[in-house]
Design goal:
This protein is α/β, with parallel strands linked by helices. The chain has one domain: Ribonuclease H-like superfamily/Ribonuclease H (Nucleotidyltransferase, domain 5). The chain has helices at residues 51-57, 61-64, 70-81, 97-107, 121-128, 136-143, 155-173, and strands at residues 2-10, 20-29, 32-42, 87-90, 112-119, 185-190. A six-stranded mixed β-sheet has the order 3-2-1-4-5-6, with helices on both faces. Strand 2 (20-29) and strand 3 form a beta hairpin. Helix 5 (121-128) runs parallel beside helix 7 and helix 6 packs across helix 7. The chain is globular and about 45 Å long. DNA polymerase III is a complex, multichain enzyme responsible for most of the replicative synthesis in bacteria. The epsilon subunit contain the editing function and is a proofreading 3'-5' exonuclease. Keywords: Exonuclease, Hydrolase, Nuclease. This is Exonuclease domain-containing protein.
Length: 192
């Protein structure tokens, strides 16, 4: 089973009013975590990046000045996923990342295809139940994943950390990685 563990950085929280400024992803085969392929790109938004977002992500206007357009970046991401598809995994993915992708496909007139996706927080909830703290940082702490040397809220760093967390959580639930232990959803990405 091919997995795409990914993260977006955006200019804000609303897919209707804010824009994607970075996409990073890791492609792995469940159970073969060391054979990963990487994808990352900055994305040129139409609006300025606020000082708050720059402070949080480290992404500046210089990073996105020569970056691809949202449509081009999303098409490249879709090609990275592959025509045969894969399961997409993001932290709060169905509510945040997948909504940004769907809204950008609509905004830029991109034809779409359906894709299976899931929220990595579902692994955490299945392991630790109703306990509070299903954000990425508490999960990393519980799993003993070090964030040393990794910039949080940079999509590349977050994908690196999330890949380790997903591998550990999935392995606790289904050690042979043959089935997905949590419920998946259906979202859209650009058609290739």
């Amino acid at each position: 089973m091919n997995l795409i563990i990914f993260d977006l950085e955006t200019t804000g929280l609303s897919p209707l009013y804010h824009e994607i400024i970075q996409i990073a992803a890791v492609k792995v085969r469940a159970g073969q975590w060391e054979d990963e392929e990487l994808f990352d790109t900055f994305v040129q938004p139409r609006q300025r990046i606020s000082d708050f977002i720059t402070g949080l992500t480290g992404i500046t206007e210089d990073h996105v000045a020569e970056a691809p357009s949202p449509a081009d970046a999303l098409m490249s991401f879709s090609r990275f996923i592959g025509a045969e598809g894969a399961m997409l995994i993001a932290h709060n993915g169905p509510c945040f990342d997948m909504r940004f992708i769907a809204e950008n496909c609509t905004r830029h007139g991109l034809p779409v295809r359906k894709t299976e996706n899931l929220d990595s927080r579902a692994f955490s909830r299945k392991i630790w139940g109703g306990r509070s703290g299903h954000g990425l940082d508490p999960i990393l702490d519980r799993l003993g994943v070090s964030t040393a040397g990794v910039r949080r809220h940079d999509a590349r760093g977050d994908v690196h950390l999330l890949t380790q967390a997903v591998r550990k959580m999935w392995g606790r639930l289904v050690p042979d990685f043959q089935t997905c232990p949590v419920t998946t959803k259906i979202g859209v990405i650009p058609a290739v």
